[in-house]
Design a protein that fits this description.
By secondary structure, the protein is an alpha+beta fold. It has two domains: about 210 residues, Thymidylate synthase/dCMP hydroxymethylase domain (Thymidylate Synthase, Chain A, 2-Layer Sandwich); about 70 residues, no CATH class. The chain has eleven helices and ten strands. Strand 6 and strand 7 form a beta hairpin. The chain is globular, with a radius of gyration of 20 Å. The mean pLDDT is about 95. One of its GO terms (molecular function) is thymidylate synthase activity. Its EC number is 2.1.1.45.
Length: about 325
Amino acid sequence: MEQYLQLCKTILADGAVKDDRTGTGTKSIFGHQLRFDLTKGFPLVTTKKTAMRLITSELLWFIKGDTNVKTLIAERNHIWDEWAFEKWVKSEDYNGPDMNDFGLRAAQEEEFKQILDEQMNIFRKKILSDDDFANKYGDLGPVYGRQWRSWPSTNGQTIDQLKNVIKSIKNNPDSRRHIVTAWNPSEVDQMALPPCHTFFQFYVADGKLSCQLYQRSADVFLGVPFNIASYALLTHLIAKECNLEVGDFVHTLGDAHIYSNHMDQVHEQLSRQPRELPTLTISNDKESIFDLETNDITIEGYDPHPRIKAPIAV
């Protein structure tokens, strides 16, 4: 994972200081590319522990076209909780403590963080126990799963981009149109978070499937390790569905940034030596990737350095 660590060094050395939507501030560069040969190991960051279970359950959530955090919370995956929680605390139905700027305040005030944790636990329990509440506040709008599996067409129907691209790879492997896009301009304003990983393309050569992702906005410390592993996993899954071997995962970044409150964590990570990459195993018990569950996907030989905690910018 030297490429990833070098990206961190480049941003620290050459990045421009910029404001951002969250009010946190970043150091940022524009336009960077990473390439991972998936035959040489699964690209899961080893300089800090990265939760593959969360990556897997989130990707399967996308693949199944789901957009409600209830499914993820039930699997103890809280990646998307903050965006759904924000929807609730800004509503007329919320009557608890002031949650304005909860992400920044929790990072700066330990007392407030305890209050936030209490309210977040209340929110999660209500999502799991109250279907009406989950439908109203758990749904994130037309985010990734909706666009991948149910893109709204002009004739009132929907387009299953993911199934279409699998069919295209199987029937016309040399096509240059093996593309799935999550960036739908007509629905961006309805999404809890506009897609950061916006567009990906598959490529078949020599019996191997490669994938290139364009990511418009890349949180390099927290997000990018997840994104690398997620799309590497997606490449493995689509290759399996299409009876192909894996090739490369190419990760093209637009605005690649490190948040100002992640600097110490990045320096700590850079002080560590990368370790050997793990290997991926996908169960053969299911007929299709659309039937897979989190436990069907496992990582072997993963020996990372300890986890490094950092606040998420909402």
